[in-house]
């Protein structure tokens, strides 16, 4: 193993690749209207039909806030208004370390989901999300909702 702490060097014939220990940054947005939260139902195979917040991975050179704006535009075809970072949650999933940057904000426009990524969207009360916890992408979703609802307007 070559390189500095936190890096792994993979060696192949005549090829060296340096990778920082696997860490991926994701931004998602908890959108609350009338005490209900917006969730989207995923279409990708690994999370098919599970409910989650709109969001996704940061692109190279992109900030967490820029990713939140982009993902809302791409997935819902609306504009994100006044995003505020709630918290960055460290999450480990299948051996990969994630920084989950959770924002709140409001949206402007009529939702039209990106149908190659999403099956549906809906507005849910906290109680209804608790009742469907086996249909959520992960248990952290309930924690994210509770923390976002606790924030002052």
Average of per-residue pLDDT values: 86
Helix content: 10-25%
Cα radius of gyration in angstroms: 17 Å
The helix tally amounts to: 3
Total count of strands: 9
Assembly state: single chain
How big a fraction of the residues is strand?
A: over 45%
Q: Termini, distance in Å?
A: 50 Å
Largest sheet: 7 strands, mixed
Low-confidence stretches: 1-20
Please tell me what the overall shape is: globular
Order of helices and strands: EEEEEEHEEEHH
Coarse structural class: alpha+beta
Describe what you observe in this structure.
There is one protein chain. Residues 1-20 have low confidence and may be disordered. Helix content is 20%, strand content 46%. It has 153 residues and is an alpha+beta fold. The strands form 2 sheets. Strands 3, 4, 5, 6, 7, 8 and 9 form a 7-stranded mixed β-sheet that branches. It has a two-stranded antiparallel sheet with strand order 1-2. The chain is globular, with a radius of gyration of 17 Å. The protein has helices spanning 64-76, 126-131, 140-150; strands spanning 7-12, 15-20, 23-33, 36-42, 51-52, 55-57, 79-93, 96-108, 118-124. 22% of the residues are buried. The protein is built from 3 helices and 9 strands.
């Amino acid at each position: 193993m070559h390189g500095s702490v936190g890096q792994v060097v993979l060696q192949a014939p005549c090829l060296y690749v340096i990778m920082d220990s696997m860490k991926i940054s994701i931004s998602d947005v908890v959108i609350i209207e009338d005490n209900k939260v917006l969730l989207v139902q995923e279409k990708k195979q690994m999370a098919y039909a599970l409910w989650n917040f709109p969001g996704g991975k940061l692109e190279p050179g992109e900030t967490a806030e820029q990713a939140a704006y982009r993902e809302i535009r791409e997935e819902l075809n609306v504009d994100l208004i006044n995003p505020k970072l709630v918290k960055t949650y460290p999450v480990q999933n299948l051996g990969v370390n994630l920084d989950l940057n959770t924002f709140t904000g409001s949206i402007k426009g009529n939702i039209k989901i990106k149908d190659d990524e999403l099956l549906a969207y809906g507005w849910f009360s906290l109680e209804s999300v608790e009742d469907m916890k086996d249909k959520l992408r992960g248990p952290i979703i309930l924690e994210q909702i509770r923390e976002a609802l606790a924030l002052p307007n």
